[in-house]
């Protein structure tokens, strides 16, 4: 447990004949945590003292004690460096006291009280928590209370997930009273709010909220009271994290999907977090600049990548040219990276100013077709489609316009009276921005019509879409259409991000 408590009148008390209480570290719904000294092996430990409200009936008290004993059994069966180690259980005054390792450091909640974290640090913490959850899930254990307070940041970059007090163990009878609700509302998955059976996906939802809070500073579902918070969990569509515009932000939004079946699996979560956490290769003096193949206007500052506006980029270039940053060497390719001109392998920049008033990058072998104020690029294999359009005279706001399109999709996406082009469409809308202009993202799963492709079964598809509205009421629309199957969706979502990152709208 985390250190940092103050002296207490009960400091010095001996528990179980060997654990001397030193200072109170914190207090939660089920107990008080103390820093203590183990007089037998001469080490510092954390001791959880049961906190029993006076109004509890005897059966309720026994339920609480059973829950604490369950925490011991649950944590003991999980072998992972990011799960707190339980040393002992002693009975004091007929109550079970839990003795566990003392994690020297602070909680993630305490860290966030001082400020948000950068993407790489968030990914590092997320990987450790994911590892702990993976180990728990393999043992049939659901944590059910993943939140910043239960993530401890120790010395030597150690991250520990603690407090398995309300964990659910497969095959064991539940301890919650009928109608009772346990957990922290803003971190509870929608299916749990609805009383449905939770699974590992529920813990991954909570991890997604933790990642969101770590990068933005607050849970996207926090409201003034618990009922409003729970309603937000069920119905609110959070905005995409502004401080995580790339792969991390996309992963967080995927983890926060309302339907458990639509959330990414743990393996995919791990892959993305590893990519985000992987250090950016520094420039080598006198040689070509390496680095990520992404469309980001970035410069390297230590281990972080920082996004800059065009004016700031010019300022950076001026400083570099003036020789005020001697550690950075100007070389062929560096200026292109600052401008964001580097393309993924096999891609090319397309200037479609005449057709849609914008330029963007697409795979070089995609087949181009055009219409009035639109351009489409089709995968030669028929798997993916990239679409960009421009349309004026939009009277609604960006969000209102996106919600109108959502209704259009839900109604079957009929262009004229006739057959639907989308069946069983399930669109989700989130606010976004691009080049400083208001916009929205629309993610839609749907079934194509029966005659979409006679050579294949009718399989679900996914459309990832962004709309941007200029001050002159001109709407720019970009989407990538793809199969919903995991292997294709992963490629398609990365493709969408690359297209959006490269998109430069002339009038913005």
Please provide a written account of the structure.
With 508 residues, the chain is an alpha+beta fold. It folds into three domains: 12-102, Phosphorylase Kinase, domain 1 (2-Layer Sandwich), CATH 3.30.200; 104-169 and 183-278, Transferase(Phosphotransferase) domain 1 (Transferase(Phosphotransferase), domain 1); 347-505, Mog1/PsbP, alpha/beta/alpha sandwich (Protein Transport Mog1p, Chain A, 3-Layer(aba) Sandwich). The protein has helices at 58-76, 108-114, 119-138, 190-193, 200-216, 226-235, 247-255, 266-277, 310-321, 334-339, 353-356, 398-410, 486-502; strands at residues 14-15, 19-27, 31-38, 43-50, 86-92, 95-101, 105-107, 141-142, 151-154, 159-161, 168-169, 298-301, 304-307, 347-352, 358-363, 367-371, 374-378, 385-391, 423-434, 437-447, 461-469, 475-483, 504-505. The strands form six sheets. Strands 16-17-18-22-21-20-19 form a seven-stranded antiparallel β-sheet. A six-stranded antiparallel β-sheet has the order 1-2-3-4-6-5, with helices on one face. β19 (423-434) and β20 form a beta hairpin. The two termini are 50 Å apart. The model is unreliable at 1-6, 166-181 and 281-340 (pLDDT under 50).
